[in-house]
Amino acid sequence: MEGPLLEGLYWDSWYNNQQLYNLKNSSRIYYENILLGVPRVRQLKVRNNTCKVYSSFQSLMSECYGKYTSANEDLSNFGLQINTEWRYSTSNTNSPWHWGFLGVYRNGGYIFTLSKSKSETKNKFIDLRLNSWITRGTRVIFIDFSLYNANVNLFCIIRLVAEFPATGGILTSWQFYSVKLL
Description:
mainly beta, 30% strand, transmembrane helix
């Protein structure tokens, strides 16, 4: 998250490396798209010992994180527990669950919002990495944000998704919903 996401959300120079003009409390993406509000990051995790290990191998396995299901979801606080990103938040909306490649993910989770400042967001990402916000139990991370492009009078609602299979690796996907302003 510290690399391409950070650089993509917070443009600070033109293609010729000249300083991008500074609009108060806003960020431009690809020069013409205004970031509305601040991006939100949400994680869902599973509890330890949520998979079945063959009896002959149980002595070799101290941890086992299964696939994501609502029954396996970890609802406990973890890590530093001083900020919201370390505490589980239940969903306060009736919005639909997300259908991913590996599962159907409910609302809620470990949530935090990014800053409008590139340097503050970078520091937040570094802090999360150093304190292991993403763990072996992490099964999905959502990054949600909205853009407005005045040239075509469109709002675009964007969701970037990274799913972490129990077998290892990452599967990425995205959703873009564009709506024309009246």
